[in-house]
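Quick note —
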Amino acid sequence: MEEQEKDDFDYANFEKEAIEKLKNGKELGGKDGVLGPMLKRLLEAAMEGEMDAHLDKEVAPNRRNGKMGKKVKTGFGTMHVNTPRDRNSSFEPQILPKRQTTLGASLDHKVISLYGIGMSYSDICAHLDELYGVTTSPATLSTITDRVIDEVKAWQGRPLESVYPFIWLDAIHYKVKENGGIRSKAVYCILAINREGIKELLGMYVGENEGARYWLRVISDLQNRGIKDIIIASVDNLKGLSNAIKSVFPDTEVQLCIVHQIRSSLKYVPFKNRKNVVRDLRQVYTAPSKDQAEVALVHLEEHWGKLHPAMVKSWLNNWEELSNYFKYPDAIRRRIYTTNPIESFHSQLRKVTKTKRVFPSDMALMKLLYLVQNNVAKKWNTQVLGWNQTYSQLMIIFENRLNQP
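Predicted structure written out below.
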C-alpha cells in the first residue's frame, strides 16, 4: 500500500495564530472567524481517519487514490474541503457524505428558524452572506423551507385526544395568489385546553372566506381525528357556526363571545350615546346571575329599544348563547365568556406575517403559520394558571363526559 497522503496539523502554531487574530479583533465565528480554518482541518483529519478504518476492513485489494475538493457550507462560511478517495471508489465518508454540501444541515435549520420568525427570503440571503459567507438564492431557500411540508401534513392529520373541556374557534385572513389572481383566504384556527390544563392548537385550515359551511368541514375533521366530545366551545357570532358545532358534537355547549357582541352592538349606537349604552350593557354581562342579567336586559330594552332597536334586538336574539356562562362558577366563566385566547394567538401570527402582503400559495402560507405556531406552542408546555380549581368544578358538573377514554 502506498504511503498515506495526510496533512499534519500544527495545533501549537494554530493556537498562536488564533490568539493573535483574537487580539487583533477577529471574531471566533462568522465567515472570517478564527475557528473556520480549524474546522476545515478537523473535517479533513476526521475523513482521513475514516479512510484508515475503511481500508483496514476492505477484503479486496484497495488503497488511497488522492483527494477530491468540494465546497461545503458551514456556520463559519463556505470552505474548500479535501476528501480522500480510494482506488475502488468504495469509500463513503460519514461525517461529510459525498453529495452533502452543507455541514450537518445546520444552515438549513438556521434558514427554517429565520423564516419562522418572519424574515423574508431576500433578508435571509443577505443575513447568510454577511455572517457566514454563504451565497444563495430565494429559490434555494424556498426549497429548504419546503422540507417542513411533510411535517406540516403530519401535524394537520395527527390524532387528537377524545375529550377537550374548552375550545375556541376563530379565523384569520390572508391574501394568497391563486389562478393568476389574488384571493382573500381564511385560516380556520381551533385552540383548546386539554384535560391536563395545557393549551393546544388543534388545527389550522386554509379555506375560502369564513363561513359556517367550511367550519362544518373543520369540525368534522376534528371528529375524524379522534375527538368524541367537547364540553364548551367559545365562538364569535358567525351565522350558522353554532349549528355546525352541534351537528357534529350535539352535547357541546356554545358560548358566544361577549366582547364581540359588545363591539358589534355598538356599531348601531351613535358616539354621543355610547358611554351611557356601555354603562347599561355592563349591568347585563357583569350580573352575578342569569336572572339578574335578564332584569338588566329588560331595563336595556325599555331605555334604548326605541332609539337603538337593532342593538337591543341583537342581544335579545342571541341571549340564550350569550348567557350560557351564567350557569357556571367564576373560574369557568372567565375561561369561556370571550374568544380572547385565540385572538391573542392570532396577534402573534400577525406579528410575524405583517410584512407578507401576499403569499404565493396556500402551502406557502401554511408553512409559515406552522413554524410560527411551533414557536408559540413552546410557551404552552405548562398548565394554565388556576387550572386545578377550574377542572375540579368541571368534574363536578361533567364527570361522566370528562372521564371518557
